[in-house]
Each structure stands twice: as C-alpha cells, then as structure tokens.
Amino acid sequence: MQAMSRTVVDVEIGRRMGPLEGLVRPGFLVLAILSGSTATAGAANDQSDGSGLPLPRFVSLKSDHVNVRGGPNKDHDVAWVFTRSGLPVEITAEFENWRRIRDRDGAEGWVYHSLLSGKRTAYVTQPKTQTEFVSLREAADANSPERAKLERGVIGNVKRCNGQWCRISGAGFDGWIEQDRLWGVYPNEKIE
Question: How many distinct structural domains can be found in the chain?
C-alpha cells in the first residue's frame, strides 16, 4: 500500500512588533543591551548567577504571550511580544532568572525564565535554491517514502536527531526530515 503524501502549511510566524514598530530593530536591541550598565553586562556572562546549563542552547516558548525586553528586568521596555507558544528560541546568556534569547531572524532580547520550556521544537527551513516544500520521510533516509511535504515555517516537536536526520511531529504529521532543514537544532546534534 502506497503512503499518501500531504502538504502541511503554517503561515503564522507568531511574532509581532509592539508600538515601536519601525523603530526597534535587531541591531538596536543589541546596542541597547550592550549599552546597559557594566554590572549587568558582566553578570550576563557570569554563569554562577544563571542555571548553570550550557550556552547557547535551544528551548521553546511556554506561553502564547511572551514579552521580550531590552534588558534583564521588568524596568526595561518591552521590545516585542511573541504570540505563539512552542516557538523555538536560542538562549545566548543568563542573568539571575532572566534569559537572553535569539529568534530565527537573529533578534535578541530578554525574557523571564518561567516563560521558557526545555521542550525542543524546530522550524522547517530551506535554502533559497530548494523547492517550496521540504519532504518529511517515513525513515531517516532520502530514499524512504515521503509522508508529507512541509512548508517553510512549519513548527514541529523534535523527537530524536541522529546528527543527520530528525524525527519531528506536529498537527497532522510525524516523520523524518534532514537536520539541516531545521532551525532549533544544531548541526550534527544528537537528541535521544
């Protein structure tokens, strides 16, 4: 029996700019973070004040409303708001209970640790030279039958990675995708 192939499309990117839209750019956020007090900048690199987990590392958003701030406390303005839970982000620094995160577009800001989850998720990406859809395979093999075609931007839960392929699942799909087609896992990373 031949497996049916279907297309999974996800058009919501899950991020919107706040009232400063057009004024707040990723480069501005980095400048704002770097221009903060030297105590904050030094403490952000001091892992004794954080979780002690390795940096950088990927996590996901726990909530469908996550304020991203210009610095590691509530006194800093909200630069933008994530509006979709499950989005993968990369933690690049820690300061006490705050985590500096980077999104898939390279924008960085600070979020409170309880808004993040250790659950691994990933975005489907593709090089500009590739076709519009990315194949999800039945097994970790390019010759394996195609289970679905995923559009760029689809988010899946990462189940396993062997360094070349990752098994991901989501609403209406489950299968293997080439690891270099995902943002949310590192090249050659193995996840059990």
Answer: 2
pTM for the predicted model, two decimal places? 0.74
Per-residue pLDDT of the chain (192 residues; tens, 9 = 90+): 444 444 444 434 444 334 333 333 333 333 333 333 333 333 344 444 688 899 999 999 999 999 999 999 999 999 999 999 999 999 999 999 999 999 999 999 999 999 999 999 999 997 666 667 899 999 999 999 999 999 989 999 999 999 999 999 999 999 999 999 999 999 999 999
What's CA 110's distance to the chain center, in Å? 14
Element (H, E) at 161: strand 155-162
Tokens of 45: 């690199």
What is the domain range of residue 139? 122-191
